[in-house]
Amino acid sequence: MADQLISWRDADEYRNDGRSPQSVKTRGLRLNITVLIPAHNEGADIGKTIESVQGQSRPPDSIVVMCDNCTDDTGAIAAGYGVRVLSSVANRGRKAGAMNQALAVILPDLEDNDLVVCMDADTIIEHDMVRNAEQLFCLQPRLGAVSSNHLIEYKRTAIELLQAMEYERDRRMIGRRKGRYGCMTGMAAMYRVAAMRDVVEAYGSVYDETNWTEDWKLTIALKTLGWDMVRPQNCLATTIPVSTVEGLFIQRERWARGYIQTLMQFGLSRWTFFPWLRQAGFAWSLLMRVAVLYLMWISRHHIIALWVIPITALLIADNLNTAWRAGWKARAVALFFPIEMAYGVLLTAAILSGYWKQFTGAGAHDTWKRVRR
User: Quick one: which of 139, 163, 207, 301 has the fewest CB in 10 Å?
Assistant: First the structure.
């Protein structure tokens, strides 16, 4: 079923009688798939990204690279792979603006049931990602988006390794929830054209150029419009991590800022109730962490008590188990949980800073900086 997938009518038969996809007679349905890659000065990585797309077990029908204000050789390198290259015009909307300009060119030539993969220029998608995602769309007519689960490529520094551990735990958590969780990541996600057109009709464009994290805005918009979404474990993408503490702080501050901005834009609704509730949980967990640190301080003379040993061992065992697939270096770090505690403090500080800026309007004219290396 790599290229020849079941039709919509067959998909209904499959859902109704419980048969496996292989037992359903195929009718030659093969959706048109376009991969869109926005790129700003990505000459160092764009070649590997295109190769990962062209090497898919189900190759896409077309690949489009949107060069956004590039001053390097990104466009020339992309053209050398035989893909279509577009250039943004007077774009001031960051990645969202470049994507909207590209989609304005691409979408008119596609049918409602065709698919568009939007992915970053420094991301490598695994060999079967396009095929696995396409099969889900064929089985579920109301499926609007399939997101990849993301992993980390480089683990050269401690801060990169800690991100690899974080992403691996995130993947495990999403798996336990059967993919019904979280944002349709901008690293790599596949969308049904009909869903994109619904968003344009309702909100004016696919991506919100005023939002700090346009992917969260698109996710909530699709849910509000009644489209289903999923992040399956067999759709994986690998990305390059932020390599400095400063860069990580800026990244997570922006993510937090855009997340709370999205919730404020949509207010309280069926689809934002639990995200708002999670913010209350975040506040409670922050309060509890402060309380625990205070209790540890006032009882510091008892920290070496015997009863602390099994509790500490349990925490270390959980850290080790959840980071196991991130490699031996991750396992070594997991044995020294204070390192991860410090990492958690850094992320919490970035989140609080992002929330503060969004609620108060501070830094309203900040420019979006992509600090990676």
Answer: 301
